[in-house]
Amino acid sequence: MKRLLVALAIAALAAPAAAQITKPVYISLPSAGNIQHLPLTAAKYKGYYEEMGVLNPQVVYLRGNSINVQAIVAGSVQFASAFGPAMQAMFRGEQLRVLLQIFNQIPMSLITRPEIKKIEELRGAKIAVTFGGSTHSVLLAMLSHFGLPQNFGEYLNMPGDQAKAAALMQGTVAAALMAPPADGVVLKAGFKRLVYLGDVFKGVPFSAMLTTAKVIQEEPELVERTVRAVVKAMLYIKQNREGGIDLVMRHGKVDKEIASSLYDLSRDAFAPALSADGIMKRAELEIATLKERPNFDPNKFMDERFLKKALASLGVKEQ
Q1: Which domains does the chain have, with CATH numbers?
Q2: Shortest CA distance to 78 belongs to which of 215, 225, 231, 207?
Q3: Over the chain (319 residues), what is each successive 10-residue block's mean pLDDT?
Q4: What is the pTM of this model?
């Protein structure tokens, strides 16, 4: 009996280690510092991935949304947050899955020179966007919303907010679509926020956590643990203002004044709840760039099982 008890004790001690995931787990983001991706990095800063048994989380930055989509489709990363451009892959039938919503507001602004008073003044002007990325599709959707043609301006491909900021400062472009905190530099330099897209498109999810059907099928435990870590980070951000501000400072490399402003502006946008209606709203922004409307059913590309398990395990009622 004594030997049996010793054996059971040893097995109990060994079980957690055996259940841990030690291989590198890649979570890719299109750029560093953008507020809409904060929970994915916050989960690493707070040690939540490791707490959930994912011991080697690697948050990587692949410049531009289209590169992130290519990486997750190819299986180079297990998770990504390139939500908008991933829609284009879903339209083609790629087996991507939306696991949870991260940010349900479009945080981008159309930044222009201070003398520009209305959008119509930018007709024919050079506007910095990222082809294949959210800035291009959202810009075209915004123009459509205001009844303006898609060929309204001359669009220059400038991946990354730093390139867009430099182009504005140098006068290469008259406007650029940018997200905080990167837009802070040009706003401080005297440029203006002509349009805030969060006011134009309300209740539209902008970023989400994605994986593939293959990863879900082959590694459901990995998906469950990683989702739980990100959801815990989202809850922490919403429930802890000072801690959330510290995370914004670290993530965006900004001072406390800017971080506080960003936190207060964005706090309520961190909502993990998934819905087919929300995904369809996001899809409509991408459909606006296409010549032919795809046959798209959002229900086929969402898997909320892991979100529901995460909320239950964290003692939270479904959002």
Answers
A1: 23-105+204-313 (3.40.190.10), 109-200 (3.40.190.10)
A2: 215
A3: 44 51 94 88 97 96 84 95 87 94 90 93 95 85 91 92 91 92 86 90 88 97 97 96 96 89 89 91 84 91 96 83
A4: 0.82
